[in-house]
Amino acid sequence: MRTLLQPLVAAGRDGILMTCTDSKIHRVFLILAAYVADYPEQCLVACCNENRCPKCTVWWSEHAEHKKSPPQTEDSVRTILQHCKDGEDPIKFNFEGLWKIYSPFWADLPHTNIFLVIPST
């Protein structure tokens, strides 16, 4: 996925020139707006175990309780993954139910929150 989406990194950061329907050239900033996948792949993309929600921080045993849980954030997940990679804070890593994917493909995509582009189930 990183190789496939590599052109979006520069296009999202710097923009690209495109001719619009009015024949004028505009600078457009491309972003990843949706990532449609089955549940196992959603969990893989979100770096979480399959007994976790790929979008929020709900505890695995509370999935069917219909209560509001805080959304997962890229900064939090990347920080926890970095701490785990550095040998620090393994309790939080296990508590969050993450996989050791230290360099997720979405980490460099500007203007993209992978937890928002995964559709709700």
Structure characterization notes:
Helix content is 36%, strand content 7%. With 121 residues, the chain is mainly alpha-helical. It has a two-stranded antiparallel ribbon.
Question: Can you list the strand order of the major beta sheet?
Answer: 1-2
Extended strand count: 2
Oligomer: single chain
End-to-end CA span:
22 Å
Strand content: 5-15%
Largest sheet: 2 strands, antiparallel
In one word, what is the shape?
globular
Q: Which structural category do the helix and sheet elements fall into?
A: mainly alpha
- Separate helix tally: 5
Low-pLDDT runs of 5+ residues are none
Mean pLDDT: 88
Helix content: 25-40%
N to C succession of SSEs: HEEHHHH
Backbone CA Rg:
17 Å
Spell out the key features of this protein:
two-stranded antiparallel ribbon, globular, 121 residues, 2 strands, 5 helices
What's the layout of helices and strands?
Blueprint (H helix, E strand, L loop, with lengths): L1 H13 L1 E4 L5 E4 L10 H7 L28 H12 L4 H7 L17 H4 L4
Antiparallel strand pairs: 1-2
Question: How is this structure best summarized?
Answer:
This protein has 121 residues and is mostly helical. The chain is built from five helices and two strands. A two-stranded antiparallel sheet has the order 1-2.
